[in-house]
Design goal:
Elements: E1 2-8, E2 14-23, E3 28-33, E4 41-44, E5 49-53, H1 61-64, E6 67-75, E7 81-88, E8 102-105, E9 112-115, E10 142-146, E11 156-168, E12 174-183, E13 186-191, E14 199-202, E15 207-212, H2 219-222, E16 225-233, E17 239-251, E18 262-267, E19 270-275, E20 288-294, E21 300-305, E22 317-328, E23 334-340, E24 357-365, E25 369-374, H3 376-384, E26 390-394, E27 400-407, E28 416-421
Antiparallel strand pairs: 1-5, 1-7, 2-3, 2-4, 2-6, 8-9, 10-16, 11-15, 11-17, 12-13, 12-14, 12-16, 18-28, 19-21, 20-27, 21-26, 22-25, 22-27, 22-28, 23-24, 23-26
């Protein structure tokens, strides 16, 4: 949901908006809400108009992490528009319910805070059962703890651990317990027994147990989990409990293969070319780029940068290709595409400060139209390390004065990088 609050410049004037939703990395339009003829919302007066627009097109985490929203506005008096709030809200996987760990009662005008004893270890809020335990285990004498259904139903469970901190209420006594794990009414597992307790404690300090529950293997089981703890106490007295908690480790994406294989094409975000015999010249705003092999230290190289998106969860890069449009080619040349070894800027790079090349080269033969380099290994290296973009150069510099002229991102045919996932 896109939440946006706006206001015209002055009372008596009207402001209207509509919005477009884009993938930021590719500038791909994925949704429109309203239009110039039928605005999404209009507001008149001095009170902010509050809008909340459902973005049904934003249906994956990858899109949400790569979001751009463009707001188009008009104002009846051709004045400025004010806005006070612009956020995107959403829900991850499903709604969930949180249960209290503390309660504050201020019904008297002065608040009293009470912690639920077993929630947190060491908070001095201790739960003591209502009655004494027998000196031998009894099947009817136990504490039962039910746990809430926190976990997303689409998740995959990795492990579950029970945390329990307890002590005998009377320091001279020895308190022992064993426990059973249930999902609803189904017994999943038992830890210890009446003849061989899971844990015992004597003294004034709390015994803290961390117990792996390998019998809990599914989200459905974990969301209906309860634990029965059977106790005995050598002096037939009570126990104190400082914590009973359940830790669940899970992952949200259950896919074992790429859930959205396919390709995405990116436009260059910066490009330029550098000139060896004019080493301080910057060409970052030009509509063309050059690659030149020439004697007398007169070579030229082109640099191209792309913003690389995060690889989708459970996917890997299977292919990458660089496409740059050639307006003019000379001779029969092999053009190399290298990784740039260090950072550079579009309006600052010159031959004298240009980065060196690094790694191996992807190669292609010069031709008019789009030239294509297979740059899978170069992009993989950028994703795992540093992305400084590409450098295009002639494979045999200091040669026969042969020049290739490419269109830059300021021209019609923008340099592109296509990434394929699988």
């Amino acid at each position: 949901t896109f939440n946006f609050d706006f206001l015209p410049n002055a009372g008596g004037e009207t402001a209207c908006i509509y919005i477009e939703v884009y993938r930021a990395s590719t500038n791909t339009l994925i949704g429109t809400h309203g239009s110039s003829g039928t605005p999404l919302a209009c507001g008149t007066g001095t009170t902010y108009t509050q809008t909340a627009t459902t973005l049904s097109e934003v249906n994956t985490s990858d899109i949400a992490n790569d979001l751009r929203i463009r707001i188009y506005g008009k104002e009846s008096a051709s004045h400025q528009m004010k806005f006070d709030y612009g956020v995107v809200t959403g829900a991850q996987y499903q709604q969930f319910t949180l249960y209290r760990t503390i309660q504050t009662d201020a019904s008297t005008g002065s608040g009293t805070t009470t912690a639920w004893g077993p929630a947190t270890s060491g908070d001095s809020a201790v739960y003591t059962p209502a009655n004494n335990w027998p000196s031998s285990f009894a099947s009817t004498k136990y504490l039962k703890f039910d746990f809430p259904s926190y976990l997303p139903t689409n998740a995959v469970l990795s492990s579950v651990t029970l945390l329990h901190s307890y002590r005998p209420n009377t320091s001279a006594d020895n308190a022992c317990y064993y426990f059973e794990v249930y999902s609803g009414a189904t017994l999943l597992g038992t830890h210890g027994s009446s003849g061989s307790p899971y844990s015992c404690d004597t003294g004034t300090g709390f015994q803290s147990d961390s117990v792996s529950l390998p019998e809990v293997t599914t989200i459905a089981q974990a969301n209906a989990l309860s634990v029965k703890m059977y106790f005995k106490d050598s002096g037939s007295k009570k126990t104190d409990h400082d914590q009973v908690a359940l830790q669940a480790n899970y992952k949200l994406d259950s896919a074992t293969t790429c859930p959205s294989p396919g390709s995405v094409t990116l436009n260059a975000t910066a490009d330029s070319y550098v000139v060896q015999d004019n080493a301080s010249q910057n060409n970052g705003t030009q509509t063309t780029m050059n690659v030149l092999s020439n004697t007398g230290s007169k070579n030229r190289r082109s640099l191209i940068q792309f913003n690389l998106p995060t690889t989708p969860t459970e996917c890997s890069l299977t292919a990458a290709s660089l496409q740059v449009y050639a307006d003019t080619v000379q001779g029969s040349r092999t053009i190399e595409a290298y990784q740039a070894a260090s950072s550079w800027t579009e309006t600052g790079v010159t031959w004298s400060n240009a980065p060196a090349t690094t790694g191996s080269a992807a190669t292609t033969s010069n031709t008019t139209g789009y030239e294509t380099w297979t740059v899978t290994s170069q992009v993989s290296s950028m994703l795992s390390g540093t992305n400084n973009g590409f450098i295009l150069k002639d494979s045999a510099e200091d040669g026969a004065n042969l020049k290739q002229v490419y269109e830059s991102r300021e021209n019609t045919n923008v340099p592109q990088l296509t990434l394929t996932y699988g």
